[in-house]
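Box 3.1 A note on notation
Throughout this textbook, protein chains are presented in two layers. The first layer is the amino acid sequence; the second is a token string describing backbone geometry. Keep the layers aligned when reading.
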Amino acid sequence: MKLRFLGCGDAFGSGGRFNTCFLVEDGNTRFLIDCGASSLIAMRKFGVDPNSIDAVVISHLHGDHFAGLVFMLIDAQLGSKRHRPLVIVGPETLAKRLSDTMECLFPGSTGMTWRFDLRIDAFEDEAEWRWGPVTVTPFRVKHFCGAPPYALRVTCGGKTVTYTGDTEWVDALVPAARDADLFIAEAFYREKQMKFHLNFETLMQHVDAIRPKHLVLTHMSRDMLDAMPAFPPGLRVTAAEDGMAIAV
């Protein structure tokens, strides 16, 4: 499995980074984890054909994590003339929120008849969602966004990737990420406590219970980017960069 960080920034473009969007590839399987507002731009920049994406998995319904679906879908319909099916899965109100956002940004767009097969599914807490060789288990976290927010445990090709989404610390992150081959964790601040967001120091207090093989920090504010903390010895830690690829 290979994972590429098309975008690893926060909602405010700190460090000039694109909104959250991770491309996962394993053989002929190609899907996105989150699709923030700038994701179509990021795909163009890094040479990723949006029509090659067969599924999109959404952690929560904030614009920097799901709003790129609007531009991806409009491009698929009117620009790149997509024909292959697309599956999107996320929190239970995703279909309505996506429709509302599309109509706000592109009035009349929700009246189009899609030229391709589009399926939108909804997660159930800690219930496995399966699509071909991919299994996603959503764990409820704590982040106000008008719909259930999730950390996502994704398995494909015998490998496991867990992504925290945006959240303050919750104990559900331990079973969500325990022994993951790759643990992608929000580290918005170094030490500062902020409601609904995870900081690096809090993450380090719990990492021994999680035991990830490789920890990647993402969704970092200027506080983290300007003065990256020292990583503890014996723990494989990487700070994400836009365009960075990791073999899992």
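Residues 2-247 form a domain with the Metallo-beta-lactamase; Chain A fold (CATH 3.60.15.10). The chain has one domain: 2-247.
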